[in-house]
Amino acid sequence: MDNVVTLVVLVLVILFVVTVIIRTIRIVPQATAVIVERLGRYSRTLEAGLNFLVPFIDKVRANVDLREQVVSFPPQPVITSDNLVVSIDTVIYYQPTDPKSATYEIANYIQGIEQLTVTTLRNVIGSLDLEQTLTSRDQINGQLRGVLDEATGRWGIRVNRVELKAIDPPASVQDSMEKQMRAERDKRAAILTAEGFKQSQILTAEGEKQSSILRAEGSAQAAILESQGQAKAITQVFDAIHRGDPDPKLLAYQYLQTLPKIAEGSANKVWIVPSELNDALKGFGSMFDAHGGGSSGSERTRRPERESAPAPETGLDEVVLEDPGEALKRARAEAAGAARDAEGVTRDLRGTGMDPGPQA
After folding, report:
1. What is the pLDDT of residues 249-259, one digit of tens each?
2. Which of 108, 111, 185, 309 has CA 20 to 30 A from 202's CA?
3. Count of CA atoms in the C-beta half-sphere (13 A) of 166
4. How many of the other CB atoms lie within 10 Å of CB of 155?
5. Domain 69-169 has CATH 3.40.1080.10
6. Per-residue CA distances from 82 to 133, 215, 234, 268 (Å)
7. Cβ-contact 252, 336 below 8 angstroms
8. pTM over 0.70
9. Where are the domains of the chain?
10. CB 84 within 8 A of CB 78
11. Domain 2-65 has CATH 2.30.30
């Protein structure tokens, strides 16, 4: 019986010692502050590491996280200066700097920050219209941070940053804004299309202008080269003609060869007879008479003489010269006959309705 009582007492003593040790030794994690009260009053703040407490006298009141924290508040309806209700979500970045003030100055600093944010947001947004609210996020963030930092400073809280996560205007306003933006985009698209069409027309006109200029320059150069070639060919022909020194008989013969080419083709209804045709016919007739008829007449004249004349000892026929006066008379008569023949041809051409050209 005594052994059992002794054993129970020993166990109780061991439990008491363990409890005292646990209450005496306090290990605080990094970036954490522990508020300790002694007999109900603030005693001290324990920092990170190993700390010792007086058991049954010192009591841990709160553990304060010293790291920067983020809290997101639900959407809050706010009225703008143009009487439109917008819904705004806010995000607060804060950090406790004084664990004692955060514990004893306010019961719930997170709820206090939330309510202070809502009231400050309503004051700031109430002085702005919808367009300014949508485009002045940085200004609103700066004003909120200044007011919150000043109010939470005595709570041992530092507000590092305030962000507006979303600003949602009413559905009707959103529809109107979408239509306005759609109209603006359509306007910009139409302007860009018109500018592109204008640029394309300008570039096309410039290209056509350049191509026309190049074609004109090519045509001009080709015409110049062609005229230079023709001039060179004509020069060479004239040089060849001058070097050949043609006589009037050859020219008359060329006239006669050219006349059939003038009448070629079924569409040619008019013959053009140059004014020099009479002279050409005269020269050609003289040439023909000189080589044809004249020689035959002289041969008829001289033939009896050659037949009656004795053959010379050399074996060659003796050539008898005609009287110059008679030869001149005969040539004049032949020329007059050639002229009469040319006049007859001209009259025939006129009778057929063809223009013989100017008379010599």
Report:
1. 666 666 666 66
2. 185
3. 11
4. 21
5. no
6. 11, 68, 95, 97
7. no
8. no
9. 2-65, 69-169, 248-351
10. no
11. yes
